[in-house]
Amino acid sequence: MAIEPKRFSIKRVLAYSVHLLTVSGIVPAALAVMQIASPDCDPRLVFLWLLLATLIDAIDGPLARKFDVKHHAPAIDGRTIDDLLDYLTFAFIPLLLIWRMDWMPPGWSWTVIVAMGASLIGFAHSEAKDETHGFFRGFPSYWNAFALYAGILSTLLSPWLTAALLWVLTVLTVSPVRVLYPNLAPARWKPIVLTGALIWAGSMLYLLYDFPRPSLWAVGISLLYPLFYALLSFYLWHDRDVQQ
Question: What percent of the chain has pLDDT over 70?
């Protein structure tokens, strides 16, 4: 008996288009690696390519849920594509940049490999994303943002400060702490979290203008959102435990 081909459906087209959007994240990832490999690497260009990859990652998840890709485009596992690209653009590439630019103390740059391994474990953990309650397990490998601050801290203060923070975050990556999943934040907090994230992205673009020597006041202001995000994550997880 011949298998009847699936009928054309606009919903299927939209669902597979979301998969293609996710796949397109490989373009800025590849361009970032090419820049790192160049003899005169400009870290600002690397950060701009990583920012584009982050924007793609920020919108493909909501679109996947909106167009129900699991139902209308089941032949492709978008989560697998997303996880592979997230590891490249959130962990491997920015940590490679820290190594390439010598933002760690002399003789200690190789320790970024430990952070890479911790992120691999973090991504592969069965509880890496708790979408039911809206949390990541452990530090969610925001190494792309950390790398920008690493360049500034190592230049203006000390590479040992960069190293200490990297090692602490490496431990937190494989720890059972919970960090808020921005796209799945509670309704009353979601507008604040997402708006704050956009403002934070703008502040980091401002830091890139004079990178790696922006004014310390600008660095301090840009750190207000990560502090708010960390405290909110702790509060919401603690509040969830109390309610249970």
Answer: 95
φ/ψ bin of 77: left (φ > 0), alpha (ψ from -120 to 50), beta (otherwise)? beta
Mean pLDDT, the chain, as a whole number?
Answer: 93
Q: Is the pLDDT of residue 243 over 80?
A: no
Domain locations in the chain as residue ranges? 10-243
Question: Which structure tokens are listed for 238?
Answer: 């603690």
Instruction: Give this prediction's pTM.
Output: 0.91
Q: Which of 92, 116, 97 is nearest to 43 (CA)?
A: 97
Q: Please, how many CA atoms are within 13 Å of residue 40, restricted to the half-sphere of its CB?
A: 0
134 in Cβ contact with 193 (< 8 Å): no
Closest CA to 156 of 112, 68, 219: 219
Tokens of 243: 């309610």
Q: How many CB atoms lie within 10 A of CB 207?
A: 22
